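To: structure desk
From: M.T.
Subject: fold request, one chain
Message: Could you run this one when you get a chance? Sequence is below, nothing fancy, just the single chain.
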Amino acid sequence: MPARNLSLFERIRFRGNPVANLESVVSFARVRFTLLTPRLVRLEWSETGQFEDRGTYAFPTRHAGAVPFEVRQQGPDTLVDSGALTLHYRSETGKAGSPFTADNLSIAFELCGKQAIWHPGLPDT
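Reply: Done. Structure tokens follow.
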């Protein structure tokens, strides 16, 4: 079909498989964490519990081999450990997954030989 007959969205549509390997996904209620690599995690929170699976410029294809990781529950806390990073998420008591804040989400990792911790709102230096 000639490009002139396609809508803008059809012309710029990403080709690929944007749905991640389910073995690399941790999800519950309104929260979904997708380990794209051991050092890269996609963070999603949705009021409705519906998540976005369309491709992006950075990742038109998210489906890849499973990323090895461990999930531990400690009360309201969920820890996702890939070996390279440890994600810590605390769900508010009585709520089914709260929006991400500096108080309930952090990711610990090593940077230049030192332990570093990221959380929402942290300036990118």
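Reply (cont.): The CA atoms of residues 9 and 111 lie 39 Å apart. Let me know if you need anything else for the meeting.
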